[in-house]
Amino acid sequence: MPWLLSSQDLVSPSERQCERSAFSFYRAVRERQPVWRLEDTRSMDVFSWEDGRARAFLPSEALLYALVHDHRDYARYLLNRFTVSALRAPRCSFCCRRRSGTPHLSVAVRYDRVSILSAMVETLKRCGTQAERRELLDGCSSCVHVTDAGKSAVQLAVELSRADCLLLLLVHGARPHGLDVALQVLVSCDAQRSDAQRSDAQRCLELLLLFLPNATPPRCLQEEPQRWQSLLGNEVFGWLRGVAPPPLLLQALRCLARFGPDQISTLPPLLQPHSWR
After folding, report:
1. What are the tens digits of pLDDT across the range 160-189?
2. Buried/exposed code over 228-260 (b: 16+ C-beta within 10 A; e: otherwise)
């Protein structure tokens, strides 16, 4: 009887069958099917092709689908059920190398999935070791086949002006890289982008300044001092160049960012970072 056959007796799926099953699963996630149905499908019917044979579809691969289509319930289920392992980078199907870091945080930033990003960094905080948190928060994919190869999630958030994503990452311990990029994005907003985009770029710069351990003078400030002085204000410009202390309110907010970072977003408008200028 068929149901008495062992798994070794069953015919292994072909590469083409694996592609069809993965695409069907992708569509099911896109249609926001219930979590129980998606997980039953993933664990029993979906396969990937790797090293000339079929393998089970990983929770980390399913989480990428949930991110792209903003299926928050399924993303939370995967994170609660598989914790940090759901954030492990799968092998690249082109070069068959295990990627460093994780693509999940960068995908969340690119698609501006703030809710799922919050669940991911909370999972890291709750279940990850210090080494895992450092690797996944600050890691850059070394695989050239990844869209944002060589960029950390923080650097991508600065580049795309995803201020809410950036705050989540910094609050949970990601390194505040990208000050030069933040300044260049802010300049480009003056000529090419809307007021809303400029506001987001300005907020990203302010958040980086709050979490920077020390202000290292960016090279661009040396090249066009007058332009940057008018853009940043005298006090912030002087601090970044190392010739003046930071504004008093900025000092207070930097202390709050170090010892009570979760409270930054709850401050009244009068005490938000932009108010030091």
Report:
1. 999 999 999 998 989 998 888 898 888 887
2. beebbeebbbbbbbeeeebbeebeebbebbeee
